[in-house]
Write a structure and sequence with these properties.
7-stranded mixed sheet, binds pyridoxal-5'-phosphate, 15% strand, 13 helices, alpha/beta, 4-stranded antiparallel sheet
């Protein structure tokens, strides 16, 4: 499609947008009394209006039923997580038995490491990306030390080539081959949080398996953003937070995937708790742990139902919309943002360098180096109603989240950006 950087063209795109109606489903922050343009759904998604109903339902059940709510609430609390199985498995391309919701993301990655990182002196290395999200780095370092290995020896980082912003697939595959038999685990982010680069999960997973390693994915920036086929790609495990693209609220619960091929593997260690125990016998208070079948067997504690309620509200919305429709809009609106940035670039003295890769390796995020600009531009944008994310030295990350961003938002952002640079 040939785009135009005009208000009329943006409005025209909005009028044909099948997801436009979802903008009404969200609550936008206001800046100086005006609805903000929100580009930071990759950090914290907006609150859907329907979320409050889900939370209120739990509050009301608790008030009316107290302890009985575990079993007789409309959505009983004791197996509340099972309501996620169908809709969430379609978001991540899994079998319903392969997904569960529990804990928070970094905690789940630690728990997955208990099962899938079992180093021996011959096979103890982990491959990850350089400049991975800090929590992942700390998590990996502490796991390696816990097992008595040295991070500088056991953790192998895939580097970017000199002068390049993104990691090349061929370099990932070469590193996997190079570490070979010593490789115990590959753990990467499905979408890099800084650049928005999307990794080829299928190919990398296959390559890891070929050398006998487990392959797990941190899908913090991928869940609800990219097409995932975790089951078909034979991913061993994955975890994601629910508060970025999945709009479940600050710091909220994490989703977790464990491939069916591991469900019956009694050699896998796991840290157990009563909510992972055989559902039918959970309240018999038996001394011997007998795990539930499937990913639910990795549950530990009684469920944080008040946290799960907002995630359930959101997952139901994703189920309603469907990932294919979401991705179709994502591609078009990200392309429009890309186009508008390049048009504005021609009209101002500064240079924008989009460090996110091109179409086939990106999703809903453009990270832009603003050469010749600094923090004052970010402040200007915020004062004028645009919420972006600033990373030192002068990168802004822009996520035109398809569920609640309009094409008009993109056009207006472009105009404000231009004014912010010209009025310096
Ligand atoms: C956001 C994010 C996290 C956050 O982890 P929490 O445990 O939820 O704080 C971890 N890893 C990546 C890659 C992220 O983008």
């Amino acid at each position: 499609m040939t785009f135009e950087n005009t208000r009329e063209f943006a409005l025209e795109l909005d009028s044909h947008d099948p997801l436009a109606k979802y903008q009404q489903e969200f609550i936008f922050p206001e800046i100086k009394g005006k609805k903000a343009i929100y580009f930071t759904g990759n950090s914290l998604g907006l609150q859907p209006k329907r979320t409050k109903e889900y939370v209120d339902e739990v509050m009301t059940d608790w008030a009316k039923l107290a302890v009985e709510g575990h079993f007789v609430a409309d959505k009983p609390w004791w197996d509340y997580h099972e309501r996620f199985a169908n809709p969430l498995s379609s978001v991540v391309g899994a079998l319903p038995s392969e997904v569960t919701v529990m804990n928070t993301l970094t905690v789940n990655l630690h728990l997955m490491m208990v099962s899938f990182y079992r180093p021996t002196p011959k096979k103890y290395k982990i491959i990850c990306e350089s400049k991975a999200f800090p929590s992942d780095q700390y998590m990996l370092q502490s796991q390696v030390c816990f097992h008595g290995y040295k991070p500088e020896d056991a953790i192998v980082e895939i580097q970017r080539r000199e002068g390049e912003h993104n990691i090349r697939l061929e370099d990932v595959l070469a590193k996997i081959d190079e570490v070979g038999d010593e490789l115990a685990l590959v753990l990467l982010g499905g979408v890099n949080y800084y650049t928005g680069q999307v990794f080829d999960i299928k190919t990398i997973t296959e390559a890891g398996h070929k050398v006998g390693a487990y392959v797990g994915w941190d899908l913090a920036h991928a869940a609800g953003n990219i097409k995932l086929e975790l089951h078909d790609w034979n991913v061993d495990f994955a975890a994601w937070c629910s508060y970025k693209y999945m709009n479940s609220g600050p710091g909220n619960v994490s989703g977790c995937f464990i491939h069916e091929m591991h469900h019956e593997d009694t050699d896998l260690h796991r840290f157990a708790g009563w909510w992972g125990h055989n559902k039918e016998r959970r309240f018999m208070m038996e001394p011997q742990f007998d795990p539930c079948k499937g990913a639910n067997g990795w549950q530990i504690s009684n469920l944080p139902v008040l946290s799960m309620a907002p995630y359930l509200a959101s997952v139901m919305m994703f189920d309603e919309v469907g990932m294919d429709a979401l991705i179709a809009k994502r591609d078009q609106i990200t392309a429009y943002l890309d186009y508008v940035l390049k048009e504005i670039d021609l009209e101002v003295s500064s240079t924008f360098e989009i460090i996110t890769p091109a179409e086939n390796e990106r999703a809903c995020q453009l990270s832009v180096f603003l050469h010749g600009e600094g923090r004052p531009l970010f402040d200007y944008l915020l004062e004028h109603g645009i919420v972006t994310d600033w990373r030192e030295p002068n990168v802004i990350r822009l996520a035109p989240v398809p569920l609640y961003t309009s094409y008009l938002d993109i056009y207006e952002f472009g105009q404000i950006l231009k004014d912010g640079i010209n009025n310096k």
